[in-house]
Amino acid sequence: YSTSKVSAKPKERYKFKAEIETLWDIDLRETGKETEFKPFRKNSKLFNITGKNGETEFSGEMRYQTKLNINDTAHVELEFENVGVTAQLFVNGKDMGQRICRPYRWDITEAVKAGENDVEVFVCNTLAQRMQDFFSTYMTLPASGITGKVRLFVQ
């Protein structure tokens, strides 16, 4: 649990803000059933893993991998608009930390280099998709995985 403040909205101090439209390789590992990740989608846009076009009863860990080209590395932050539910970010193999709620935003300055950068995100959802009782079958469950916009901020 972190008590540090991170602005959920970009401030004027950023000279560059971009929405990243990259494709991701997505692998899944089902909690209690699998020990290794299994390929799920290659070169995919972000979507709700447990939505109608995914695995509706999936509960476990999702691994997202992509490459980002970054030219200006003075001060760089990466933000995911929506994550269901927790996310741990690695940039070029360096652990940037975990987030359990919004804002899903990391200062990645110490890990990025000019040019191509490897980005890997581990996302975990809850067991709610797989283990429902009579009452919870009528509840709206939150999306699983990374959904929404991915933003890059450069200062």
Account of the 3D structure:
This protein has 155 residues and is mainly beta. The chain has no helices and 10 strands. It has strands at residues 16-19, 24-30, 38-44, 60-70, 76-84, 86-91, 94-99, 104-107, 115-124, 145-154. The strands form 2 sheets. A 6-stranded antiparallel β-sheet has the order 3-2-4-9-6-7, with no helix packed on it. A 4-stranded antiparallel β-sheet has the order 1-10-5-8, with no helix packed on it. Strand 6 and strand 7 (94-99) form a beta hairpin. It is elongated.
| Main beta sheet | 6 strands, antiparallel
Helix percent band: under 10%
Secondary-structure class: mainly beta
Estimate what percentage of residues fall within beta strands.
over 45%
Rg for CA atoms? 16 Å
What would the principal axes of the Cα set say about the shape? elongated
Q: For the residues shown, what is the average pLDDT?
A: 88
Count the E strands: 10
| Helix-strand pattern | EEEEEEEEEE
The total count of helices amounts to 0
Which spans have pLDDT < 50 for at least 5 consecutive residues? 1-8
Distance between the termini: 27 Å
Please give the order of strands in the largest beta sheet: 3-2-4-9-6-7
Features:
elongated; disordered N terminus; six-stranded antiparallel beta sheet; 155 residues; single chain; mainly beta
Short description:
The chain is mainly β. It has no helices and ten strands. β6 and β7 form a beta hairpin.
Strand and helix map with partners:
Elements: E1 16-19, E2 24-30, E3 38-44, E4 60-70, E5 76-84, E6 86-91, E7 94-99, E8 104-107, E9 115-124, E10 145-154
